[in-house]
Recover the amino acids of this structure.
């Protein structure tokens, strides 16, 4: 528990970007309007998957299709497993969206109830072996949600904040083991264990 609180402090001080903050504000606008505009859809896709396939996100996801699948009842204040499965299945009808990407839409629009699932957050929970071929499996996401909602309650955070915390820790663990990843942590993260061992407060607030 204390370990994750420390990682949340690291996330807040080191990782957030203007894009991260802007995307959450975007989610608030979408939820208030109860409709996802194509421009917003593309921004969320780019936030989750990067800009490499931007042209495909744009050309193969039409506003009419988004409106056909993401209707007013998508935004109901209901967050049980049945509603979660329904939302994910609707999102997965759109181009290039699987459960992992769908989780990003849910977390951005409903940050108090959902989090993004990826291999780094699962690594931090020691659930990474479940990812692999099951990354499109809704049941894994439901199990993940149960874990992060429980942690959110214990840590007084939102599930979205918990997923960011877990991703930060999981990214560190991958980098520590010299696993080849696209986005390496700043050098200052490498001192994390030394800081803990020496019980010094250097750049982080625990």
């Amino acid at each position: 528990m204390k370990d994750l609180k420390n990682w949340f402090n690291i996330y807040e001080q080191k990782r957030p970007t203007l894009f991260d903050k802007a995307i959450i504000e975007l989610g608030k606008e979408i939820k208030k309007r109860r409709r996802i505009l194509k421009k917003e859809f593309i921004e969320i896709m780019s936030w989750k998957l990067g800009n490499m396939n931007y042209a495909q996100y744009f050309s193969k996801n039409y506003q009419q299709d988004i409106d056909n699948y993401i209707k007013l009842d998508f935004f109901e204040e209901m967050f049980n497993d049945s509603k979660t499965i329904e939302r994910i299945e609707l999102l997965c009808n759109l181009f290039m969206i699987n459960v992992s990407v769908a989780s990003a839409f849910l977390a951005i629009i409903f940050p108090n109830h959902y989090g993004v699932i990826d291999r780094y957050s699962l690594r931090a929970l020691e659930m990474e072996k479940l990812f692999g071929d099951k990354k499109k499996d809704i049941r894994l996401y439901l199990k993940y949600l149960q874990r992060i909602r429980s942690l959110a309650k214990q840590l007084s955070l939102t599930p979205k904040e918990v997923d960011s915390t877990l991703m930060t820790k999981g990214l560190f663990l991958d980098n520590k083991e010299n696993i080849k990843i696209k986005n390496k942590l700043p050098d200052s993260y490498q001192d994390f264990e030394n800081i803990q061992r020496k019980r010094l407060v250097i750049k982080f607030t625990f």
User: Anything to note?
Assistant: Confidence is low (pLDDT under 50) at residues 188-206. DSSP finds eleven helices and no strands in the chain. The two ends are 12 Å apart (CA to CA). Residues 16-156 form one domain.
